[in-house]
Design a protein that fits this description.
By secondary structure, this protein is an alpha/beta fold. The chain has 19 helices and 19 strands.
């Protein structure tokens, strides 16, 4: 549930700044809206369930609290006049039940109520946002309360009220320890209670933006000079609006996501990045030494810098010229084709063994690769019993096999690849059986000449496409990132984090651009591909010699019914291991 450093929710805390006047509470809410707050938060309580009657402040809170009808007046009017989110501290069971009647957007549990089992039990199936105040609470108390909640929409708030809280008492290091303990399981926020007259009241919360918080709670009041209830840490609407502006400007400096280049930074990279060049002419067969190269800026920004270790002491497979940029295509590269498939599928179970042509879909893919004399093929599947039949198909085609994790596809690939040690990997999924060797060669040449880390062929007919990945990139992802169970969608994993790598997309001839999928993902897809192969065989007496012209001709003569896109469009953000 971790959050990128952007779009911090700024909550205007009304608290008791209304001085016990319910119409004043409404006016403060409307003023918060005009001050560009994202949300308003009130405090709903009833003195009888909040304090012992002998408590010295019982009468004070009794006077400050509102009736159920007064709360309805406040909330209903706010909802009529604005679309702002409305939250509330609920300081007891009765207060919580009222918040549900009012249909608020979320609630906050005060740190004093962490041990209130009567209240906490009611939250077990609460679906809306829950804020938990951490102020003055032990880690054990927090963990004990959180263990009783099923919600996945919880934000832990750092801070406490000391009328006002001294800067030296804020202790962001404690906040960091709480974050490190609970990690990405929850979101985190900061409730600011520093003096409203202190310049740091505006700038101190900026520190928390850099710490990855998702919300900031700041008190608001109409007139600090009156020194009303809760004025200590409150700011007036004008200053609140300025505070929001400062936060929004700070957010801009963090960019759109974790690691995305702005256009100006891309231009900067293209201008200043250096490339490896040959210092002299060298003939084919020459073993490249460190002294044969130099690292300089060039005017060619289309070729990415090659990884130095990837070419040192390698032999040239062609002649090169002095000052020529060093690219992968001048060396011999070890390539491994990895086919990934399993029997389990939500939409089309056992699709790898469905009969197609003169064999099964998976067998067809293997034979298609062999038809083009592709060598060094590795088949990766799971340890599930149901995938034994896939192993038999692979072994029948004399394909090396590896069985591993069902969910972590990258782990399934990397364990055998560490033994093979290729320079690059061509990844083919078992539902893309129409491999096209001509376009594969186009993609490979493009990949090598541009010194790319990754290349796809997304403009090519889906079902015939492949992707090529530098082995060092796969190694980097495997060793350094969380959520590897999501690598079933390895393409999304890289494309959605494109500025982590040097990526490209290979060109496709205009005559081969078609908006049709022949990936086998559903029964309709399977029947469509099966029909093509049968028609091709009837005409050519061969199941494996077709090319892209044949596929495009078939599509034009047999338009596929429009349906939803087969491929899942899943956005995956890479998170570095801590």
């Amino acid at each position: 549930m971790g959050k990128n450093i952007m779009d911090v929710e700024i909550i205007a805390e009304i608290a008791n700044a209304h001085q016990g006047k319910f119409k004043e509470a409404l006016k403060l809410g409307l003023a918060a809206v005009k001050s560009n707050a994202n949300a308003i938060k009130y405090q709903i309580y009833f003195a009888e369930e909040f304090l012992d009657k002998q408590h010295p402040r019982f009468d004070h809170f009794k006077k400050q609290s509102f009736s159920e009808n007064q709360w309805k007046y406040i909330i209903l009017n706010l909802k009529k006049k604005t679309n702002i989110k409305i939250y509330a501290d609920v300081l007891g069971v009765k207060a919580f039940r009222l918040s549900k009647k009012l249909k608020l957007d979320g609630i906050k549990i005060h740190s004093s109520d962490l041990g209130n089992v009567k209240l906490i039990r009611l939250l077990k199936n609460y679906k809306k946002k829950i804020f938990i105040s951490c102020g003055g609470s032990t880690l054990f108390e927090l963990n004990n309360t959180l263990s009783k909640l099923n919600s996945k929409n919880i934000t832990l708030l750092h801070g406490f009220q000391s009328y006002p809280t001294k800067i030296s008492d804020i202790n962001f290091n404690r906040f960091t320890k709480i974050k490190n303990f609970f990690k990405s399981k929850y979101c985190y926020g900061y409730q600011d209670h520093t003096s409203g007259s202190d310049i740091y009241n505006t700038y101190l919360p900026l520190v928390t933006v850099g710490m990855g918080i998702s919300c900031i709670e700041k008190h608001i009041t109409f007139n600090r000079s009156l020194k009303g209830v809760d004025y200590f840490s409150s700011v007036e609407p004008k200053k609140f609006k300025y505070f929001v502006k400062v936060i929004r400007n700070i957010e801009k400096s963090f960019g759109k996501n974790n690691y995305e280049f702005s256009e100006s930074e891309k231009n900067y990279r293209n201008v200043v990045k250096k490339n490896w060049l040959f210092k002299n002419d060298f003939k084919k067969g020459h073993k490249v030494k460190f002294s044969d190269t130099e690292f300089l800026r060039t005017s060619n920004s289309e070729i990415n810098p090659i990884n130095f270790e990837s070419f040192l002491n390698k032999k040239l497979i062609k002649d090169v010229k002095k000052n020529q940029i060093i690219t992968k295509d001048v060396f011999d590269n070890k390539v491994c084709f990895v086919v990934v498939a399993r029997s389990k599928s939500n939409r089309l179970p056992n699709k790898a063994t469905l009969k197609i042509g003169d064999s099964s879909t998976l067998d067809h893919l293997f034979k298609r690769l062999k038809h083009f004399r592709i060598k060094n093929i590795l088949f990766c599947t799971t340890k599930n019993k149901e995938d034994d039949k896939l192993i038999k198909i692979a072994k029948k085609n004399k394909i090396d096999c590896f069985r591993g994790s069902e969910e972590n596809v990258l782990d399934r690939m990397m364990r055998p690849l560490y033994k093979i040690k290729p320079d690059m990997v061509v990844r083919i999924t078992g539902d893309d059986i129409l491999f096209d060797n001509s376009y594969h060669n186009i993609a490979m040449n493009f990949f090598l000449r541009k010194n790319l880390d990754y290349i796809d062929h997304k403009k090519l007919l889906s079902g015939a496409e492949t992707e090529i990945i530098d082995f060092n990139v796969l190694d980097f992802i495997f060793k350094n990132y969380e959520n590897l169970d999501e690598t079933e969608y390895l393409t999304n994993y890289i494309i959605d984090n494109k500025d982590f790598f040097n990526i490209g997309s290979a060109p496709v001839k205009k005559k081969h651009l078609v908006n049709t999928s022949m990936t086998i993902d559903t029964m309709d897809d399977y029947l469509y591909v099966k029909k093509f192969l049968n028609l091709y065989y009837n005409k050519n007496k061969n199941f494996y010699n077709y090319n892209m012209d044949d596929l495009v001709e078939y599509i034009k003569k047999n338009p596929k019914k429009k349906n939803k896109k087969n491929k899942k469009n899943i956005k995956i953000v890479i998170n570095l291991k801590s």
